[in-house]
Amino acid sequence: MERLLILEDGSVYRGQGFGSDDLKTGELVFNTSMTGYQEILTDNSYCGQIVMMTYPLIGNYGINRDDYESIEPAVFGFVTRDLCQSPNNWRSQETLDDFLKAHNIPGIYDVDTRAITRKLRNKGTMRAMLANPDTDIEAAVRQLQETDYLHDQVARVSSSKIFPIPNRGHKVVLMDFGAKLGIVRELSRRGCDLIVVPWDTDAQTILSYHPDGVMLSNGPGDPEDVPQAIETIRQLMGKTVIFGICLGHQLISLACGAKTYKLKFGHRGANHPVVDLETGKVDITSQNHGFAVDIDSLADTELELTHKALNDGSCEGVRHKELPVFSVQFHPEASAGPEDTAYLFDKFVAMMDKEGRHA
């Protein structure tokens, strides 16, 4: 069946529909990863977005039970050049098309993803919709231009209740802003006794569990949309070890007085080079974010820059000068992506060992 991809600048791309027929409007972004479409589709940081893969061959190894990053995907749509209808992999349990139908995600393929990517690189990410071929294009474009971006994505994807993931090691409270299961896996692998709490849990409740550390997860949207969480993090500082990833990194920075800004087209892919400013070592990282911390704004805070992106010089990591608090913009849980930076979870555990601090 024919389907349209309509952009807010009036561009229209005709392709073939797959997945769900529940067509949606969202922010169109691109991901440069060559593999990992299952992890990308189930990464809740994409809530409110339509994801386009720049690599053309998608669906060729199917979907399996092990590579999920969330139970319920929150992505609003999926765009590919080619769609493989007959996957060939020993772990494959269903096709990409069947997966999208089951999770109510619409898709479009047989469009010029290279041309669309060039447009987004030149003009920046923009609102878009997946539509039927008989859609009134002018009305659709007006709707896109008048539609505001979502501001409640974190509330949509965060856990609604507190629950434990028991173990015998350090007690860690995981603030769930849309946490990838890879974070849970890495912490559990190191024996951490986890308590997962919703994004808006207050500091008093978190400290009542006497955590050895607090993990601030990744998540979708603008970090300034969750001021309640920023204040909670501010109250937690100095009372426990804190490690932030992606959105968690941005929230730590805001809590310390730094500023964030929206990137033109974001960092989304599995091969982004980042330099550790202390060691000079370059790591290849997995990234997915549309906002970044303003490096210049760190000068008026107690934070110092620890990592920097080699592609555009943006902030990729900070640490507090006095307190056991650090964060990175990239994803050390590395799903899907390289595993260069998984050692940061070991650093988190070592800091908890050193501090021995029970709130």
UniProtKB/TrEMBL annotation:
For this protein, the Enzyme Commission number is: 6.3.5.5
List the GO biological process terms: 'de novo' pyrimidine nucleobase biosynthetic process; 'de novo' UMP biosynthetic process; glutamine metabolic process; L-arginine biosynthetic process
Query: Which residues are the active-site ones?
Result: 246 (nucleophile), 331, 333
Q: In which pathway does it act?
A: Pyrimidine metabolism; UMP biosynthesis via de novo pathway; (S)-dihydroorotate from bicarbonate: step 1/3; Amino-acid biosynthesis; L-arginine biosynthesis; carbamoyl phosphate from bicarbonate: step 1/1
Quaternary structure (record): Composed of two chains; the small (or glutamine) chain promotes the hydrolysis of glutamine to ammonia, which is used by the large (or ammonia) chain to synthesize carbamoyl phosphate. Tetramer of heterodimers (alpha,beta)4.
Family per record: Belongs to the CarA family.
Please name the NCBIfam families in this protein's record: CPSaseIIsmall, PRK12838.1
Write the protein's name.
Carbamoyl phosphate synthase small chain
**From which source organism is this entry?**
Faecalibaculum rodentium
Gene designation per UniProt: carA
